[in-house]
């Protein structure tokens, strides 16, 4: 940056637009990024962020406007072109080959895809490993490049993706532009902190576009924040003169903050809906006892090795345990998913796409899949009734677009999650709901709707067991908090009379 | 502010030794797994050898050893191609048809009892050309028209058989005339049967292709996720067609060798090979879903099945029971191999 003349922008967009049929997903977006800048890109699900990123990664072609990289206008005909121009994208869904080594994943995309291949067309493994180690070193990671990606934790995989993105740019002799699409959406807090530290290092190497739903994160990491809404870029601010509340308002277009929950302690006489006693599964959790009461939200906090997800799955019968007991509404026989559902338990899994929904089925059929409710007469389901029932849920949970006859896989993540939730809410007798990371990947607007719905079913007398993404989420919505560490319970709080600070909780988690 | 307190805490709270420890655990686990999987196969092989040598003293002799190697040579050659196809996440059922068509083409163009032309080495080129055409056709139909490989190659199996039958016509059996070629496959050079030397060469080349060439690495990548391959700008189309072509060429080579071994041309020269090859790949530990596995494992799988067959015969198991026994052992082995790969909800399709 000691140049007298200012260097050209790493990336310059001029009135870029993209339509799908009549739907204008991106409308006249103009944006310019200087070397060494970290730009935050925020917006609700469906605001056009993903489409914009796909244009930059060469997956979509824009209809109008121009894109210039390092001062030169470019036309991307495919992902390979974008890579060659020095734009590396770390996608929201992981895009690593899990069966290959770290080194290959980093090198596989180097320009013309010839990383480490010698003149005979054979791989030069030694060079491949050396180059990959160098790329990892640049971002301060000391992973062994010979490790297979399937052996890595999520945060390490993100590091590999970032290393790859940088490697691609470095090999084409351009200032790297790394685009991170919600890199922290599915990370635990501690992992997020590691990743944040690495992102701030990227500033010395190149520029970054950081897409996230977590506003606090954006404020910490970025120099500038741009906000998208309805396909348009509506604000471009420096982080110094904007507040989190203002960003939220810009993004969602309305003021929202749920009223502070009015909490009470557990009434002495109430019986728990779900009661687990001394539950143990070797290598996962030990002597876990938890009671979940009707009309209360119980949040289980813990890091990724705490075993809290496995406990939640055991309650629903989706995973076995070695000893102890799970009793649901008085029944404490052999647990199974079938039994749990029959007893009125619902489960929203973290792996939404594989366990929570049938993507190749219309949204309305997904809703009536488990509990047909009023859509069925005896064993027969009536399509018209099903559709009108689905319309009610679409209205109630603000699922967009309001087209329940469309395949569920065509909806955005937040709206899919609402459909999954509706599937359980459609039960006439929902006694308990187990929510495994229900807000994962949801934008703040959708998260508010889901949370509001959780509160309302809870107030109707359902017991909620929640595995939250963040401590804030737990403090926001829970009545009881159980903290787990290394498979054991390390703290229990009844928020009716306890008032734990974030640090208290964090201390018990680590 | 809650957020600020949290961020400061985590910035201080990162303990790099914990990360180092995790990295070393990752490495150790990977190294252990790399050893453990082939080890269990080798152990199964050892158990079989011990059991059969106790049952019959003729089992553990040089001549039987060479016999087993000759029997395994053709399945090994074909299985190298099958492994590549399965690593893509596809399957090639056309093996026996391609073997028939290639073998028949070759013998009719070589010196045989029906007379006709003797093209010498050109017979090899033309016969393997037939295999290549069948393979490229399968590959193109599969890739360009997006028909499941299962269906395409099932059809190609019968196309191959049809070609072989048409060439065969209604004439007398074409019998091999060249004395130098007769019995060549089971003749011993440097201690090993000739056909096994060919198999070793093919295995070596296969490992080289899979480990160190673009085709091989992209094959593994496609098996893992074709979506990612495409969005990374890698040549998915070309590689898929190439792999089907390679597999057909190897089936063709196997067909010619089988014809030499049989001494006569027959459309069904490859009969029974598919039922060794596909199970061998799976028992070896290559995932039917693609992406994971390797050629050496398949080699172990082929040996396991050939030794099993050979041992059963020597132990005097009646031939009518043999296929039932082989089949049952096969199912058991596959259940065992697939046990660790069940998903969390124990779903199988």
Automatic annotation (TrEMBL), chain A:
The keyword Ubl conjugation does not apply. The keyword S-adenosyl-L-methionine does not apply. Keywords: ATP-binding, Nucleotide-binding, Repeat, Transport. InterPro entries: AAA+_ATPase (IPR003593), ABC_carbohydrate_import_ATPase (IPR050107), ABC_transporter-like_ATP-bd (IPR003439), ABC_transporter-like_CS (IPR017871), P-loop_NTPase (IPR027417). SMART domains: AAA. Residues 11-255, 268-509 form the ABC transporter domain. Pfam families: ABC_tran (PF00005). PANTHER family: CARBOHYDRATE TRANSPORT ATP-BINDING PROTEIN MG119-RELATED (PTHR43790), GALACTOFURANOSE TRANSPORTER ATP-BINDING PROTEIN YTFR (PTHR43790:SF9). This is Monosaccharide ABC transporter ATP-binding protein, CUT2 family. It comes from Salinibacterium xinjiangense.
UniProtKB/TrEMBL annotation, chain B:
The chain crosses the membrane at residues 39-56, 68-91, 122-142, 149-168, 188-210, 241-262, 268-288, 295-314, 320-339. It is found in: Cell membrane. InterPro entries: ABC_transp_permease. Keywords: Cell membrane, Membrane, Transmembrane, Transmembrane helix. GO terms for molecular function: transmembrane transporter activity. CDD domains: TM_PBP1_transp_AraH_like (cd06579). GO terms for cellular component: plasma membrane. The keyword Transmembrane helix applies. It comes from Salinibacterium xinjiangense. Pfam families: BPD_transp_2. This is Ribose transport system permease protein. It is a multi-pass membrane protein.
